[in-house]
Amino acid sequence: MRAGIWLIGARGSVATTSVVGALALRAGLAEPVGCVTAHPDLDSAALPDFCDLYFGGHDVATVPLAKKAEQLAAAGVVPARLVQALGAELAEVDADLRPAPEAATQAATAEAIARDLMRFRTRHRLDRVVVVNVASTEAAAPPHPAHAGLDALSAALNGPGTVLPASSLYAYAAFTAGCGYVDFTPSTGARLPALAELAAHRGLPYAGHDGKTGETLLKSVLAPMFAMRNLAVRSWSGVNLLGGGDGATLVDPGANAAKSASKQRVLRETLGYAPAGDTRIDYVADIGDFKTAWDLVTFAGFLGTGMCLQFTWQGCDSALAAPLVLDLARITLAAHEAGHTGPLESLAFFFKDPMGDVDHALPAQWEALRGYLAGLGGGR
Amino acid sequence: MRAGIWLIGARGSVATTSVVGALALRAGLAEPVGCVTAHPDLDSAALPDFCDLYFGGHDVATVPLAKKAEQLAAAGVVPARLVQALGAELAEVDADLRPAPEAATQAATAEAIARDLMRFRTRHRLDRVVVVNVASTEAAAPPHPAHAGLDALSAALNGPGTVLPASSLYAYAAFTAGCGYVDFTPSTGARLPALAELAAHRGLPYAGHDGKTGETLLKSVLAPMFAMRNLAVRSWSGVNLLGGGDGATLVDPGANAAKSASKQRVLRETLGYAPAGDTRIDYVADIGDFKTAWDLVTFAGFLGTGMCLQFTWQGCDSALAAPLVLDLARITLAAHEAGHTGPLESLAFFFKDPMGDVDHALPAQWEALRGYLAGLGGGR
Amino acid sequence: MRAGIWLIGARGSVATTSVVGALALRAGLAEPVGCVTAHPDLDSAALPDFCDLYFGGHDVATVPLAKKAEQLAAAGVVPARLVQALGAELAEVDADLRPAPEAATQAATAEAIARDLMRFRTRHRLDRVVVVNVASTEAAAPPHPAHAGLDALSAALNGPGTVLPASSLYAYAAFTAGCGYVDFTPSTGARLPALAELAAHRGLPYAGHDGKTGETLLKSVLAPMFAMRNLAVRSWSGVNLLGGGDGATLVDPGANAAKSASKQRVLRETLGYAPAGDTRIDYVADIGDFKTAWDLVTFAGFLGTGMCLQFTWQGCDSALAAPLVLDLARITLAAHEAGHTGPLESLAFFFKDPMGDVDHALPAQWEALRGYLAGLGGGR
Amino acid sequence: MRAGIWLIGARGSVATTSVVGALALRAGLAEPVGCVTAHPDLDSAALPDFCDLYFGGHDVATVPLAKKAEQLAAAGVVPARLVQALGAELAEVDADLRPAPEAATQAATAEAIARDLMRFRTRHRLDRVVVVNVASTEAAAPPHPAHAGLDALSAALNGPGTVLPASSLYAYAAFTAGCGYVDFTPSTGARLPALAELAAHRGLPYAGHDGKTGETLLKSVLAPMFAMRNLAVRSWSGVNLLGGGDGATLVDPGANAAKSASKQRVLRETLGYAPAGDTRIDYVADIGDFKTAWDLVTFAGFLGTGMCLQFTWQGCDSALAAPLVLDLARITLAAHEAGHTGPLESLAFFFKDPMGDVDHALPAQWEALRGYLAGLGGGR
């Protein structure tokens, strides 16, 4: 399968790291460390090969991809030697990046997006294209009556004003262009009845929300540990200090609240109760892409004896996210090929805020993912 | 079932906390927090009721149980109000504690031990008795040819000299008295061919080794997390600062080495490779029973980007161990009742160094345990 | 000198711990650990003896002092054996605690407060009395024109409405009753021109603000370390999780902001610049009096190389504050005796937000304190 | 003053970082962050200018300096852009690096070393040269009778066998060549009566031992904090994980013990008692030059209430050491110029194991340093 990945936010850190990584894999300059679909238990011949992936995307930013890659190298996110070695390949991808369209109506904007997608598919003779949203987190979108059904939505988009938040407009355009859609952010994306209707109608799969890269990943194994040991978690408080582009966005209280809520959900779901405490997100420019999260968990053991666990996670967000972006794209492309439509609930392993009524414990999510990939066939 | 629990090291911190807790449960003064067998998914009517447990034991120490309980209350291990409320019950148990026998030959010592066990069973009209070793960790025992078979062993025990380490002599005595045996320590216990032969011959179950209460518990969920995410763990270094009785014992380099090895095994088994780094155990008297463990994990993500996780676990060892002692006793008693014999490999969930070729990831161990308890029947 | 300490918030955790401690010192049941004035380099015969301190106070709460002490013992703040041994002495102090007066005008309330102070002084034939505010933190008080001068203030207090926040009204009453005043909280206290005028007029000393018990204490030695090494601190972010009475108060955003600002001041003052990052305070009931603070400091070394320091402070706030309350009371009483009036700037060692244009580095504050005590004479 | 710095271990990480940094300062490509002598309160015209420093040195390794610098850039120790910009300058320094001499007797070796030093001085027309030992830590040296006096030493060096450890032989050679000497390592260096005699005879200054770059730096401000607050430190345990060249050396138990002892000394000296606990050093190759130290301090407050502080220091050892190497060289050169001879006790600020009976609290050491530099005159 010749497969295309169209990135919303294509000149951002996550997107650029994903592209550098995929090009490095294709050139044999790197190993797929951090790629879940490269795990021996998960690999499947139904997935498009890392070497058959083509990249394009939209962005409002105009920084050349190679320049952005150099900045990431200087910050320690990707190795400088790779960026140097992949100059020509990065320039090729850069030629496939388009400015984010903006037209008089949202309908016209969506058409322009879809046109870009279809040209990309034609130009590279791609069998399938998946759209992956790795743009900055949006503030929570206000509800709109036209979200309830496809006909109302189509009509409303032709009027003036903002009916859909950007992430959802891209999902709409992706579906109209016959592409699957993955939302790696906590934004609204495809989570609207009208868009579900459109995906069903067009027979397309989609996945989300909010890639699970750090603190929530830890919660998804530690909270089940406390539950299995029948220990009573009294409080779970966390602070996330981060300085990259996403950090700056999250200073906006609306976006911050959306993200924090998605981060505490795993506790309630795996413990069966909500312990005291909050998760805070603070923007500290100097920290850059190397997010530092600190969590304090207080819990009671036998006879009420108080104890505590604390952890500090110092992870490079883009380097954690990028291989998952490749994983999600590969799987959604294969799901599309297999004719699966609607929300891909078996991909909860990847998300802080997964779709469907699914288990939030990581091992159970792993089993669901393994089963799904096995079902896609072609065990390698 | 009227069930007896005979504790080796009966006046130690873990044993005393177990007894205080069981008496508090019986009196309705506490909830079974930290008892895995009280988890709604695991509870089984085949298990003896918490209220039907009787306690006895051996110890070389002579401190009265109530006095030891007061010391634990002063140290914050158990609530002072429980110790005050349970004075009469603690005195009753104290009457069933015996000095550790020591005779001219190990055979005679084993006979004296077995005699104590049988008298305990008779005095309380118990259906089953299980022996649980919660004494201090022994230094690794030297090999002896008589360990290879039961006949050789029986003969050798009648001679002078030390054939079996204490933990194994207690297992021998337990089996001859018709009791199951659980080793909560890293000592040799029942792990000798001659003792396996004896247990098989007498139709008795046994379990071990080394209760998984803190740092290794965390490793058993965190290491699989790194594996599932296909991240490359470069180093995993840990230090354990502890000050209780076990800490003092572990200053002995032999005992320390035994414990440290058992602590790194989980990494090799769940990651599939052994990262750099060691686990150290240091005795710091002032820290008392509230062990503090710090671990640093360095790992590489996509394209080799280096990241790290560190955690600090501040747990009360006795309060973490005691409910597991009750769990293990209940399950081994039920296994005995059900006619199961030999090593109980389904109990790996509880141990740092489990018996058999078992999975070291906690969620898999939980499933094995759940399946085993379901098989015992009597779902509550 | 027979000396009296009148506590505002006398039934709170800090006050109760201070009283239990002073009674224990008098009874020879404890050592003055944590009392700075007991340091061999600081002790001075000019200070009233620990054994000559008498306690009284106001509170809106009515819980008996002995009951409050028992609660603190259960929470591990003070040893249960002391509370048991000091029952009679605690009851005696309880007899000197009065409900917080509340009259038709603030002038009348101040009179009632002053009357309580004078009766306390007479009853125990005290040479000097100092009023110490250990009540909960107030929200920042709105400005009022009458704060500017004593005459305007006296007039305004006779009218209806709230002219002074409670902490300042107590300072006003203390001064009118001829007592020194210490504010251990970040509240306004004596920091108003009108009150400075009154203290000067009556020849009385006062001190404040906001006892330096934990995170800020660390900042006051760590920030100078970075400065002395000429390292560039890029960011300093902190989170304080606390659950006692003060924690609940600080959920109020006004009080929280007052406290957070006072916490970052030391960085700006000792580094000479304000690094990025904030200090947050979160209320987590389960954590109780054992506050947990985590700070992350990122800094650049030679050639800009990025590094970091993080620390976790787990301290019992009341146990850290109580000895300082005794220190401050002893010193202010001695200052009063020595005829010193106005703000005691040499006591910056004790405060997050000290009075005057003083050095914020702890060692310099120590030297200032040592010099001041030496000047009081009577080196022991 | 045209000043020379001769580095023992000149191709190691610390030396290379020092050279890269000094060249970058000279070229105006970097700021002297981390250089204590660049602090506005300390700068003095008596110090040789950063731009007037010339470098040479000995090493057993043969890796080109530029290559070593590239390795450090890849590891994030120095910026790659500096290494690229300073290629020519690094090559020039490389021309002044000599293989470590080794002759038939230690006397002949010392002569060869001294000859290299004198040639370096002549070649660059230097006014003064200082020798700085930044080689790997030696195992503790066995005592030898000839250490007691200069005559005996001179005689013994002419015989076969090892009389002096390498660090001391270099000090001997430095003194005979008329150079000051700084030992940045815990090795023996100039700390022998015979060498003190030689330095006095030749009128030369020297300084040491063991640069205070990380964990001990923190101890030197935190331990005084506990002392000033009259809090009782119960235990202070630490672990250092490091992976650079020094780490590998410290796997040798002798070197490790030397370093650990030097690390705990500050506690005994500033607290007045030795708390329980040890400092461990573990080699973990993957950690590289970014040392991670974790310390746990348990302490008792008022009425014995137990509390704790823990910190994690993640610092780049070479980047922390290099500016101090420049500082020490500048000051020792100025001391030489000023005619000061013998151990420079005012430089305790820089060392874990300083010379003389000096204060171990950092602020007092800072004052001593400031006074010394002011005495050198020429306040800038």
Q: Tally of extended strands of chain A?
A: 11
* Widest sheet, order of strands of chain A: 3-2-1-4-5-6-11
Oligomer: homotetramer
What's the Cα radius of gyration of chain A?
20 Å
Low-confidence stretches of chain A: none
Number of separate structural domains of chain A: 2
Beta-strand percentage of chain A?
A: 15-25%
DSSP helical segment count of chain A: 13
Task: Give the overall average pLDDT of chain A.
Answer: 93
Intertermini distance of chain A: 16 Å
Description:
4 copies of one chain form a homotetramer. The model of chain A has no long low-confidence stretch (mean pLDDT 93). In chain A, β5, α8 (193-202) and β6 (205-208) form a beta-alpha-beta unit. Chain A has helices at residues 13-26, 65-74, 80-85, 87-94, 106-123, 150-157, 166-176, 193-202, 215-228, 245-250, 253-271, 317-337, 362-376; strands spanning 3-8, 53-59, 97-99, 128-133, 180-183, 205-208, 232-242, 279-283, 290-300, 306-316, 342-343. Chain A contains 13 helices and 11 strands. Helices cover 42% and strands 18% of the residues of chain A. The first copy, chain A, is an alpha/beta fold. In chain A, 63% of the residues are buried. Chain A has a 7-stranded parallel β-sheet with strand order 3-2-1-4-5-6-11, sandwiched between helices. Chain A has 2 domains: 3-211 and 319-376, Rossmann fold (3-Layer(aba) Sandwich), CATH 3.40.50; 215-315, Dihydrodipicolinate Reductase, domain 2 (2-Layer Sandwich). Chains in contact: A-B, A-C, A-D, B-C, B-D, C-D. Chains A and B meet through α1, α9, β10, α12 and α13 of A and α1, α9, β10, α12 and α13 of B.
